[in-house]
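Obj: model holo form, ligand = 2-OXO-4-methylpentanoic acid.
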Amino acid sequence: MTAAIDINITKVITSKINEISLENIPFGKYFTDHMLEADYQDGEWKNVEIKPYQPLLLEPSIAALHYGQAIFEGIKAYKDEDGNAFIFRPADNFKRFNVSAERMQMPTVPEDIFMEGMRMLVEMDKKWIPAMADHSLYIRPFMFSTDNVIGVKPSETYKFMIILSPTGPYYNAPMKIYVEEKYTRAAPGGVGFSKNAGNYGASMLATALAKKAGYDQVLWTDAFEHKYLQEVGTMNVFFIIGDTAVTPSLEEGTILSGVTRDSAITVLQEMGFKIEERKITIDDLINAHKSGALFEVFGTGTAATISLIKELKYKDYVMEFDVDQWKTAPELKKRLNDIRYNKVPDNYGWMIKV
Ligand code: COI
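Output (holo C-alpha coordinates):
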Protein backbone atom coordinates (compact mmCIF):
# COMPACT_ATOMS: atom_id res chain seq x y z
CA MET A 1 0.00 0.00 0.00
CA THR A 2 1.36 3.46 -0.79
CA ALA A 3 1.05 6.24 1.73
CA ALA A 4 0.96 10.02 1.22
CA ILE A 5 3.11 10.28 4.32
CA ASP A 6 5.80 7.91 5.34
CA ILE A 7 3.83 5.31 7.25
CA ASN A 8 5.04 1.78 7.50
CA ILE A 9 2.08 -0.57 7.06
CA THR A 10 1.77 -4.16 8.24
CA LYS A 11 -1.62 -5.81 7.77
CA VAL A 12 -3.15 -8.58 9.85
CA ILE A 13 -3.15 -12.01 8.25
CA THR A 14 -6.63 -12.85 9.51
CA SER A 15 -9.22 -10.25 10.53
CA LYS A 16 -10.97 -10.63 13.94
CA ILE A 17 -14.17 -9.14 12.59
CA ASN A 18 -16.10 -12.41 12.48
CA GLU A 19 -15.49 -12.98 16.21
CA ILE A 20 -17.98 -10.27 17.27
CA SER A 21 -21.38 -8.92 16.28
CA LEU A 22 -21.38 -5.22 15.43
CA GLU A 23 -25.01 -4.87 16.55
CA ASN A 24 -25.75 -3.20 19.92
CA ILE A 25 -22.09 -3.37 20.67
CA PRO A 26 -21.06 -1.89 24.04
CA PHE A 27 -18.92 1.26 24.05
CA GLY A 28 -15.17 0.79 24.00
CA LYS A 29 -14.97 -2.94 24.55
CA TYR A 30 -13.78 -4.26 21.20
CA PHE A 31 -10.98 -3.02 18.99
CA THR A 32 -10.38 -3.36 15.27
CA ASP A 33 -7.60 -5.21 13.49
CA HIS A 34 -5.07 -2.38 13.28
CA MET A 35 -3.60 0.51 15.26
CA LEU A 36 -1.31 3.45 14.55
CA GLU A 37 1.83 4.03 16.58
CA ALA A 38 4.50 6.77 16.40
CA ASP A 39 7.41 7.69 18.67
CA TYR A 40 8.74 11.07 19.71
CA GLN A 41 12.48 10.89 20.25
CA ASP A 42 15.33 13.41 19.95
CA GLY A 43 12.87 16.24 19.30
CA GLU A 44 11.03 14.66 16.37
CA TRP A 45 8.27 12.21 15.51
CA LYS A 46 9.49 8.98 13.91
CA ASN A 47 8.66 5.30 13.35
CA VAL A 48 5.11 6.02 12.21
CA GLU A 49 3.44 2.71 11.55
CA ILE A 50 0.08 1.05 11.18
CA LYS A 51 0.20 -2.52 12.36
CA PRO A 52 -1.94 -5.26 13.90
CA TYR A 53 -3.62 -4.21 17.18
CA GLN A 54 -1.40 -5.68 19.88
CA PRO A 55 -0.10 -5.18 23.45
CA LEU A 56 2.69 -2.71 24.16
CA LEU A 57 5.93 -3.68 25.83
CA LEU A 58 6.84 -0.87 28.24
CA GLU A 59 8.98 -0.56 31.32
CA PRO A 60 7.14 -0.09 34.64
CA SER A 61 9.01 3.18 35.13
CA ILE A 62 7.43 5.01 32.16
CA ALA A 63 6.61 8.52 33.29
CA ALA A 64 2.95 8.53 32.14
CA LEU A 65 2.07 5.84 34.66
CA HIS A 66 3.46 7.91 37.51
CA TYR A 67 2.79 11.56 36.68
CA GLY A 68 -0.03 11.48 34.18
CA GLN A 69 1.32 13.16 31.07
CA ALA A 70 -1.38 11.46 29.04
CA ILE A 71 -3.95 13.02 26.71
CA PHE A 72 -6.56 11.71 24.30
CA GLU A 73 -9.33 12.55 21.87
CA GLY A 74 -12.64 10.98 20.88
CA ILE A 75 -13.81 11.14 17.25
CA LYS A 76 -16.35 9.10 15.30
CA ALA A 77 -16.51 7.60 11.82
CA TYR A 78 -19.88 6.78 10.25
CA LYS A 79 -21.01 4.70 7.32
CA ASP A 80 -23.82 5.80 5.01
CA GLU A 81 -26.36 3.55 3.27
CA ASP A 82 -24.08 3.17 0.25
CA GLY A 83 -21.16 2.03 2.39
CA ASN A 84 -19.21 5.31 2.18
CA ALA A 85 -17.23 6.14 5.33
CA PHE A 86 -16.90 9.63 6.83
CA ILE A 87 -15.11 11.04 9.85
CA PHE A 88 -16.97 13.78 11.75
CA ARG A 89 -14.99 17.04 12.26
CA PRO A 90 -11.57 15.44 12.87
CA ALA A 91 -9.71 18.72 12.28
CA ASP A 92 -11.39 20.19 15.38
CA ASN A 93 -10.22 17.28 17.51
CA PHE A 94 -6.74 17.58 16.03
CA LYS A 95 -6.56 21.23 17.13
CA ARG A 96 -7.87 20.41 20.61
CA PHE A 97 -5.41 17.54 20.94
CA ASN A 98 -2.50 19.91 20.47
CA VAL A 99 -4.05 22.43 22.89
CA SER A 100 -4.11 19.62 25.47
CA ALA A 101 -0.51 18.69 24.56
CA GLU A 102 0.72 22.22 25.18
CA ARG A 103 -1.05 22.46 28.53
CA MET A 104 0.56 19.19 29.63
CA GLN A 105 4.04 20.16 28.39
CA MET A 106 3.97 17.49 25.70
CA PRO A 107 5.08 17.83 22.07
CA THR A 108 2.42 18.67 19.50
CA VAL A 109 1.62 16.05 16.88
CA PRO A 110 2.01 17.07 13.22
CA GLU A 111 -1.18 17.36 11.21
CA ASP A 112 -0.19 14.74 8.62
CA ILE A 113 0.47 12.05 11.24
CA PHE A 114 -2.76 12.78 13.09
CA MET A 115 -5.10 13.42 10.18
CA GLU A 116 -3.72 11.33 7.34
CA GLY A 117 -2.65 8.57 9.73
CA MET A 118 -6.19 8.44 11.11
CA ARG A 119 -7.74 8.47 7.65
CA MET A 120 -5.53 5.62 6.48
CA LEU A 121 -6.19 3.59 9.61
CA VAL A 122 -9.97 4.06 9.28
CA GLU A 123 -9.79 3.17 5.60
CA MET A 124 -7.96 -0.05 6.41
CA ASP A 125 -10.53 -1.02 9.06
CA LYS A 126 -13.56 0.44 7.26
CA LYS A 127 -15.47 -2.83 7.40
CA TRP A 128 -15.55 -2.43 11.20
CA ILE A 129 -17.79 0.67 11.01
CA PRO A 130 -21.23 -0.58 12.04
CA ALA A 131 -23.88 0.44 9.52
CA MET A 132 -26.72 0.82 12.05
CA ALA A 133 -28.54 3.80 13.56
CA ASP A 134 -26.71 5.22 16.59
CA HIS A 135 -23.67 3.03 15.80
CA SER A 136 -20.26 4.24 14.66
CA LEU A 137 -16.56 3.60 14.84
CA TYR A 138 -15.06 5.43 17.82
CA ILE A 139 -11.57 6.72 17.05
CA ARG A 140 -9.26 7.15 20.03
CA PRO A 141 -6.04 9.09 19.36
CA PHE A 142 -3.86 9.38 22.47
CA MET A 143 -0.36 10.32 23.58
CA PHE A 144 1.63 9.51 26.69
CA SER A 145 5.10 10.11 28.06
CA THR A 146 7.50 7.19 27.87
CA ASP A 147 10.74 8.25 29.61
CA ASN A 148 11.91 5.50 31.94
CA VAL A 149 12.66 7.98 34.73
CA ILE A 150 10.66 8.64 37.85
CA GLY A 151 11.90 12.18 38.41
CA VAL A 152 9.04 14.68 38.09
CA LYS A 153 9.65 16.54 34.85
CA PRO A 154 8.29 16.59 31.31
CA SER A 155 9.38 13.49 29.45
CA GLU A 156 11.73 13.65 26.49
CA THR A 157 10.06 10.71 24.74
CA TYR A 158 6.39 10.06 23.92
CA LYS A 159 4.18 7.64 22.09
CA PHE A 160 1.27 8.76 19.90
CA MET A 161 -1.27 6.11 19.01
CA ILE A 162 -4.68 5.70 17.42
CA ILE A 163 -6.96 2.76 18.15
CA LEU A 164 -10.46 2.15 16.82
CA SER A 165 -13.49 0.69 18.56
CA PRO A 166 -16.84 -0.14 16.92
CA THR A 167 -19.60 1.11 19.17
CA GLY A 168 -23.33 1.36 19.81
CA PRO A 169 -25.03 4.04 21.97
CA TYR A 170 -23.07 5.15 25.08
CA TYR A 171 -26.10 5.83 27.27
CA ASN A 172 -29.17 3.78 26.46
CA ALA A 173 -31.72 5.66 28.51
CA PRO A 174 -32.45 9.20 29.74
CA MET A 175 -30.24 9.98 32.72
CA LYS A 176 -30.70 10.93 36.36
CA ILE A 177 -28.12 13.50 37.41
CA TYR A 178 -26.84 14.55 40.83
CA VAL A 179 -25.65 18.16 41.17
CA GLU A 180 -22.23 17.80 42.81
CA GLU A 181 -21.48 20.05 45.77
CA LYS A 182 -18.43 18.50 47.37
CA TYR A 183 -16.05 17.22 44.72
CA THR A 184 -14.74 19.35 41.85
CA ARG A 185 -13.67 18.57 38.34
CA ALA A 186 -11.78 21.75 37.47
CA ALA A 187 -10.78 25.21 38.69
CA PRO A 188 -9.56 28.28 36.74
CA GLY A 189 -5.86 27.92 35.96
CA GLY A 190 -6.16 24.14 36.05
CA VAL A 191 -6.52 21.58 33.27
CA GLY A 192 -10.29 21.36 32.88
CA PHE A 193 -10.20 22.48 29.23
CA SER A 194 -7.64 19.87 28.25
CA LYS A 195 -8.51 16.28 27.50
CA ASN A 196 -5.99 14.70 29.80
CA ALA A 197 -6.40 11.34 31.47
CA GLY A 198 -6.25 12.77 35.00
CA ASN A 199 -9.47 14.73 34.56
CA TYR A 200 -11.29 11.45 34.10
CA GLY A 201 -9.50 9.63 36.92
CA ALA A 202 -10.31 12.51 39.26
CA SER A 203 -14.01 12.30 38.38
CA MET A 204 -14.50 8.68 39.32
CA LEU A 205 -15.09 8.93 43.08
CA ALA A 206 -17.86 11.53 42.79
CA THR A 207 -19.44 9.54 39.95
CA ALA A 208 -19.27 6.29 41.92
CA LEU A 209 -20.94 7.95 44.94
CA ALA A 210 -23.66 9.39 42.71
CA LYS A 211 -24.22 5.95 41.20
CA LYS A 212 -24.51 4.44 44.66
CA ALA A 213 -27.21 7.01 45.42
CA GLY A 214 -29.16 5.99 42.28
CA TYR A 215 -27.88 8.58 39.80
CA ASP A 216 -26.13 8.03 36.47
CA GLN A 217 -23.69 10.92 36.57
CA VAL A 218 -22.92 14.20 38.31
CA LEU A 219 -23.36 17.77 37.13
CA TRP A 220 -20.11 19.46 38.10
CA THR A 221 -20.17 22.86 39.78
CA ASP A 222 -17.38 25.43 40.21
CA ALA A 223 -14.57 24.80 42.68
CA PHE A 224 -15.11 27.86 44.92
CA GLU A 225 -18.83 28.24 45.54
CA HIS A 226 -20.29 25.09 44.02
CA LYS A 227 -22.93 27.17 42.34
CA TYR A 228 -21.83 27.76 38.73
CA LEU A 229 -22.67 24.80 36.48
CA GLN A 230 -19.84 23.29 34.39
CA GLU A 231 -20.24 19.88 32.71
CA VAL A 232 -22.27 16.73 33.17
CA GLY A 233 -20.23 13.55 33.52
CA THR A 234 -18.06 13.40 30.40
CA MET A 235 -20.31 15.77 28.45
CA ASN A 236 -21.08 19.45 27.96
CA VAL A 237 -24.51 20.47 29.16
CA PHE A 238 -27.35 22.48 27.56
CA PHE A 239 -30.48 23.96 29.10
CA ILE A 240 -33.46 24.98 26.98
CA ILE A 241 -34.95 27.94 28.83
CA GLY A 242 -37.84 29.57 26.96
CA ASP A 243 -36.64 30.20 23.40
CA THR A 244 -32.97 30.16 24.40
CA ALA A 245 -30.38 27.40 24.57
CA VAL A 246 -28.03 28.17 27.46
CA THR A 247 -24.70 26.41 27.89
CA PRO A 248 -21.81 27.22 30.25
CA SER A 249 -19.18 29.45 28.62
CA LEU A 250 -15.63 28.32 27.94
CA GLU A 251 -13.69 31.39 29.00
CA GLU A 252 -12.63 30.25 32.47
CA GLY A 253 -10.93 27.19 31.02
CA THR A 254 -12.77 24.83 33.34
CA ILE A 255 -14.77 22.91 30.77
CA LEU A 256 -13.97 21.05 27.59
CA SER A 257 -14.52 22.86 24.32
CA GLY A 258 -16.67 20.06 22.92
CA VAL A 259 -16.90 19.44 19.19
CA THR A 260 -20.44 18.12 19.68
CA ARG A 261 -21.14 21.20 21.85
CA ASP A 262 -20.08 23.43 18.97
CA SER A 263 -22.10 21.38 16.47
CA ALA A 264 -25.15 21.56 18.76
CA ILE A 265 -24.83 25.36 18.99
CA THR A 266 -24.78 25.61 15.18
CA VAL A 267 -27.77 23.29 14.71
CA LEU A 268 -29.80 24.86 17.55
CA GLN A 269 -29.28 28.24 15.90
CA GLU A 270 -30.47 26.73 12.63
CA MET A 271 -33.56 25.49 14.54
CA GLY A 272 -34.33 29.08 15.60
CA PHE A 273 -33.01 29.11 19.16
CA LYS A 274 -31.14 32.02 20.66
CA ILE A 275 -27.83 30.82 22.08
CA GLU A 276 -26.34 32.02 25.34
CA GLU A 277 -22.88 30.79 26.23
CA ARG A 278 -22.61 32.20 29.71
CA LYS A 279 -22.18 31.54 33.40
CA ILE A 280 -25.26 29.88 34.82
CA THR A 281 -25.86 29.06 38.47
CA ILE A 282 -27.88 26.25 39.97
CA ASP A 283 -30.19 28.95 41.42
CA ASP A 284 -30.81 30.36 37.91
CA LEU A 285 -31.76 26.86 36.83
CA ILE A 286 -34.06 26.23 39.79
CA ASN A 287 -35.77 29.60 39.21
CA ALA A 288 -36.29 28.72 35.54
CA HIS A 289 -37.70 25.35 36.60
CA LYS A 290 -40.03 26.91 39.19
CA SER A 291 -41.35 29.41 36.64
CA GLY A 292 -41.96 26.66 34.09
CA ALA A 293 -39.40 28.08 31.63
CA LEU A 294 -36.88 25.21 31.89
CA PHE A 295 -38.03 22.87 29.15
CA GLU A 296 -35.14 20.51 28.46
CA VAL A 297 -31.72 19.55 29.80
CA PHE A 298 -29.27 17.42 27.84
CA GLY A 299 -25.62 16.51 27.53
CA THR A 300 -23.52 16.59 24.38
CA GLY A 301 -20.37 14.60 23.68
CA THR A 302 -18.68 12.52 21.02
CA ALA A 303 -19.21 9.22 22.81
CA ALA A 304 -22.67 10.04 24.14
CA THR A 305 -23.85 12.27 21.24
CA ILE A 306 -27.04 13.87 22.70
CA SER A 307 -28.13 12.44 26.06
CA LEU A 308 -31.45 13.40 27.58
CA ILE A 309 -31.57 14.20 31.29
CA LYS A 310 -34.82 13.19 32.94
CA GLU A 311 -33.98 14.18 36.51
CA LEU A 312 -31.68 16.67 38.22
CA LYS A 313 -31.28 16.67 42.01
CA TYR A 314 -29.76 19.56 43.95
CA LYS A 315 -29.90 19.26 47.77
CA ASP A 316 -33.57 18.45 48.40
CA TYR A 317 -34.80 20.03 45.20
CA VAL A 318 -35.60 17.55 42.43
CA MET A 319 -36.34 18.61 38.86
CA GLU A 320 -38.14 15.91 36.91
CA PHE A 321 -38.89 16.02 33.20
CA ASP A 322 -41.22 14.08 30.95
CA VAL A 323 -38.67 13.50 28.19
CA ASP A 324 -41.26 11.83 25.97
CA GLN A 325 -42.80 15.28 25.45
CA TRP A 326 -39.52 16.88 24.40
CA LYS A 327 -39.08 18.28 20.92
CA THR A 328 -35.71 20.06 20.91
CA ALA A 329 -33.11 17.48 21.97
CA PRO A 330 -34.63 14.72 19.79
CA GLU A 331 -34.79 17.10 16.80
CA LEU A 332 -31.20 18.22 17.41
CA LYS A 333 -30.07 14.60 17.59
CA LYS A 334 -31.94 13.76 14.39
CA ARG A 335 -30.47 16.70 12.50
CA LEU A 336 -26.95 15.83 13.65
CA ASN A 337 -27.44 12.16 12.78
CA ASP A 338 -28.83 13.04 9.36
CA ILE A 339 -25.58 14.89 8.65
CA ARG A 340 -23.40 12.15 10.16
CA TYR A 341 -25.06 9.31 8.25
CA ASN A 342 -24.99 11.39 5.04
CA LYS A 343 -28.78 11.56 4.73
CA VAL A 344 -28.82 15.32 4.12
CA PRO A 345 -26.27 17.66 2.56
CA ASP A 346 -23.46 18.62 4.94
CA ASN A 347 -23.65 22.41 4.69
CA TYR A 348 -20.97 22.95 7.29
CA GLY A 349 -18.12 20.89 5.83
CA TRP A 350 -18.08 18.63 8.90
CA MET A 351 -17.83 15.26 7.18
CA ILE A 352 -14.46 14.15 5.87
CA LYS A 353 -14.73 11.30 3.39
CA VAL A 354 -12.37 8.45 4.16
C1 COI B 1 -15.96 11.44 24.32
O1 COI B 1 -17.12 11.84 24.25
O2 COI B 1 -15.27 11.15 23.33
C2 COI B 1 -15.35 11.35 25.61
O3 COI B 1 -14.29 11.83 25.78
C3 COI B 1 -15.99 10.57 26.62
C4 COI B 1 -15.13 9.39 26.89
C5 COI B 1 -14.25 9.67 28.04
C6 COI B 1 -15.89 8.15 26.97
